User: Fold this.
Amino acid sequence: MNVLMLISLFYAFQEPQDFHTLRKQSTEAYRDDDYQTFYRYSEAARRLRPEDASGMANLAYGCALTGRPAEAMKWFVILAEMGLRFDLEDEDLASLKGTPGYEDLKKKFKANMTPVSSSTKAFSLKQRDLFPEGIAYDGNTKSFLVGSIYHRKIDRVDPDGSVTNFISAARDGMWSVLGLAVDAKRRELLACSSAIDQTRGLVKADLGKSGIFRFNLDTGKLMKRYLLDNKNGTHNLGDLTIAANGDVYASDSDSGDIYRIKAGSDELTVFLHSKELRSPQGLCFSADGKRLYLADYSYGLFAIDMKTRALTRLDFAKPQALYGLDGLVMHGNSLIGIQNGLEPNRIVRWDLDATGLKVGQGKVLEANHRLYAEPTLGTLVGDTFYFVATSQWGSYDDDNRPLPNKELKPIQILALKL
Assistant:
């Protein structure tokens, strides 16, 4: 047995064998400038999930950083065909300059940033430092509810476009407002709220606390708070949905768990814990209520069997980019998702087959709209998808304070006919 074989066996023995550990440790290796380990673990993770586009991107960077420019180019070409864009001027990719196909790849990435849009402006909000995340619709009053990350409040937008404050800043101990959901049948508004760095007036001891606030939809009166403390780890309940029977389900992007409040119960409990999830985000039910679909920001789309609680990764006909997925709604037999963790930011429709677990090629409905500043969450009103187009998550300074108003954009809510 030669030396190279011995080295290979040593690395195989030392190498983590599960996807999640490989991804975690590859990230740590990159941060430590240990590019050989970053490459090796990225390559091993890709073997375990060859369809994962974020894994392909990691491997492409790993190749570029370890003297494998031709191999890096191969992966970037595949990613370009998925409609993505990467900055080839990134210093991590310096080794690619001058390689065959480099200039053509730059042109392809540039072409992928061509705006695709059919949405229209629904309404604007004048308060530029609102930093909205979630939006919900009340069919009785035909008004929208919009939550604020920075100002810890919920505003109501009436059909004539007038804006009134529905839940005032920090009322009832509320922190940053994220996902919102209207329970029209019970006349309730459910709001996810988390104590995060961008929370105005944050008490440092609260950082990592989170909860769900239940309000009367007609009066705004607080009915109940369901809180998670930060004693055994941080929490960030970011999105939620309501089952037909009134059960409330919420995703915790910090713990990776899915929580539930059973109808008639006063407890917020873990419904699903799985190492398959890293940063769960949007949630929505199938039409028959038998499956709960969820978006994971790192790992893509999943379905939960509501009877068995079995978690299944959706099966796609061909590899495609599923990472950076935030808001998620169900329209007919299709999933509509907002992707803000990749370039270009976009809205994609994925049509499900009869099993509800297999998906064809996604269709990009919107991409790189001129009004986008990190679109986040949306809500369906009939066949129209209303979504927050300008959350402006990147427009805070190093102390997590909003940039000056002149550097912020007007808040736009767009409407997309499906």
In short: Helices lie at 3-14, 19-31, 35-48, 53-65, 69-81, 102-111. Residues 120-417 form a domain with the Neuraminidase fold (CATH 2.120.10.30). The longest strand covers residues 176-183.
